[in-house]
């Protein structure tokens, strides 16, 4: 109900709010956001008893292979002996990082090069779960200006929790290895629609047409971007058509609806004009586009840490970022907003704060933002998750686990089902819907990373 996110009630007095504002309040609002307290401390967003299951929760092999990917990058970049940072944004319950660090410990030289692990997490409850998993439930912790500190159970590597990646200083002497798994899809989006409007035609200067002419002035059609806004559903009114949303059986009434702004907004005047990909769609009335400014900001941050920038010059680019999420690779996302609750697609405008909200990632926009932010990086992918994991050896690792001592037939069967679920490339399968994109130091295309058509290469 609306009381789950009290700040949303302000829209009844201030008018409709942008979709991005609605998503931000619902997911990470100070008062009852989905990831910041609304679902209650006795409930988990993840897993069979929660609302959704992520790849690291499906199989430990997923996190192990991500760890192997970063090990391969560390080797390819000359095996730096120190200054390595492991950064994860949106780390969930910490399962992915736990599997990564356990795997990296099998490569002592890389493990000893890790200076710190940074976990960028806005939820206090999730931070506690991550700390218990990575450091132990009774591990002592401390707080500083940069965040919360504890020591991991993996070789005593320091772990630092921050609410924002901006709290992690950009140090051009460090080697940042960054992972973002199912993070970008939860970033707020703005939605715009091109609308045809009419404007009075101006009489050319010096025209001989008499001023006394009483004919109605002709008009000329124009097209402008209008923003989709979120507005409360008035009492007794049926919400606007939600047929654009993928909804399974759901009887919960929507409390909000999307409406088209009556005129331009500060966002519609700038964001859709920021790329030729959007501008070329403007001339077609009713074109719909989704834009995620936060995704571009994070991609720019990753690229700056890896490749440097005019503000943060880096003598030698180093590090890597791996982004795994679902989204589009060659088109601009449209109508992709979804609500997820108890493993079902539900109306994203019902039960705000109790429903996970997400949208397709625009991988092309992410890649563009990274390369524009730093001349010292290049982008590989996106490639389908199934292709990435198979090339990383997921089948071979699964077969090895299934044959390990003490593994019974039932467990072996589950291992087999799990890895196949991750690489399933059928319609809607995780192996096809999810994609992987890598940001690496610029090397003139001389080396492709593993998982993207390349092999491990000694730096």
UniProtKB/TrEMBL annotation:
Localization terms from the record: Mitochondrion
MF annotations from Gene Ontology: protein-arginine omega-N symmetric methyltransferase activity
Gene Ontology biological process: methylation; mitochondrial respiratory chain complex I assembly
Keyword Transferase: yes
Catalysed reaction equations from the record: L-arginyl-[protein] + 2 S-adenosyl-L-methionine = N(omega),N(omega)'-dimethyl-L-arginyl-[protein] + 2 S-adenosyl-L-homocysteine + 2 H(+)
Signal sequence region: none
Enzyme class: transferase
Family: Belongs to the NDUFAF7 family.
Superkingdom as given in the UniProt entry: Eukaryota
Segments of skewed composition (Polar residues): 199-219
Keywords from the UniProt entry: Methyltransferase, Mitochondrion, Transferase
Role description: Arginine methyltransferase involved in the assembly or stability of mitochondrial NADH:ubiquinone oxidoreductase complex (complex I).
Protein's name according to its UniProt entry: Protein arginine methyltransferase NDUFAF7
Segments of this protein annotated with the region Disordered: 199-222
Entry GO CC: mitochondrion
Lineage, opening ranks: Eukaryota, Fungi, Dikarya, Ascomycota, Pezizomycotina
InterPro entries in the cross-refs: NDUFAF7, NDUFAF7_sf, SAM-dependent_MTases_sf
A Pfam entry, by short name: Methyltransf_28
């Amino acid at each position: 109900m609306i009381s789950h996110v009290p700040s949303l009630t302000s829209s009844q007095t201030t008018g409709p709010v942008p979709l991005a504002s609605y998503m931000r309040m619902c997911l990470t609002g100070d008062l009852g956001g989905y990831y910041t307290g609304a679902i209650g401390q006795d409930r988990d967003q993840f897993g069979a008893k929660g609302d959704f299951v992520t790849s690291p929760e499906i199989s430990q092999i997923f996190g192990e292979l991500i760890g192997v990917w970063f090990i391969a990058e560390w080797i390819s970049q000359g095996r730096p002996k120190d200054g390595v940072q492991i950064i994860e944004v949106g780390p969930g319950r910490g399962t992915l990082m736990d599997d990564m660090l356990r795997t990296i410990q099998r490569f002592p030289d890389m493990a000893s090069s890790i200076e710190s692990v940074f976990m960028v997490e806005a939820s206090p409850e999730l931070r506690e779960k991550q700390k218990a998993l990575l450091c132990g439930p009774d591990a002592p912790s401390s707080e500083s200006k940069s965040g919360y500190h504890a020591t991991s159970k993996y070789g005593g590597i320091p772990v630092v929790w921050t609410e924002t990646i901006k709290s992690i200083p950009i140090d051009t002497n460090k080697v940042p290895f960054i992972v973002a798994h199912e993070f970008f899809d939860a970033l707020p989006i703005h939605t715009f629609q091109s609308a045809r409007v009419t404007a009075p035609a101006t009489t050319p200067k010096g025209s001989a047409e008499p001023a006394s002419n009483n004919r109605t002035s002709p008009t000329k059609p124009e097209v402008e971007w209008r923003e989709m806004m979120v507005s409360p559903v008035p009492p007794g009114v049926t919400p606007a058509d939600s047929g654009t949303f993928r909804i399974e059986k759901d009887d919960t009434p929507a409390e909000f609806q999307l409406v088209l702004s009556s005129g331009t907004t500060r966002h519609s005047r700038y964001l859709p004009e920021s790329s030729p990909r959007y501008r070329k769609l403007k001339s077609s009335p009713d074109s719909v586009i989704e834009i995620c400014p936060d995704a571009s900001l994070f991609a720019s941050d990753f690229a700056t840490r890896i490749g440097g920038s005019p503000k943060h010059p880096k003598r030698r680019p180093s590090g890597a970022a791996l982004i795994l999420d679902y989204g589009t690779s060659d088109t601009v996302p449209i109508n992709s907003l979804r609500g997820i609750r108890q493993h079902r697609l539900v109306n994203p405008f019902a039960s705000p704060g109790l429903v996970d909200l997400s949208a397709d990632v625009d991988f092309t926009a992410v890649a563009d933002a990274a390369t524009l932010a730093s001349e010292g990086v290049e982008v590989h992918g996106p490639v389908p998750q199934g292709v990435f994991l198979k090339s990383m050896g997921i089948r071979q690792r699964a077969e090895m686990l299934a044959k390990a001592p003490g593994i019974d037939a039932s467990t072996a069967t589950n291992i087999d089902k799990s890895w196949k679920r991750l690489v399933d490339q059928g319609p809607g399968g995780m192996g096809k819907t999810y994609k992987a994109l890598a940001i690496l130091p610029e090397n003139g295309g001389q080396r492709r990373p593993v998982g993207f058509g390349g092999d491990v290469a000694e730096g």
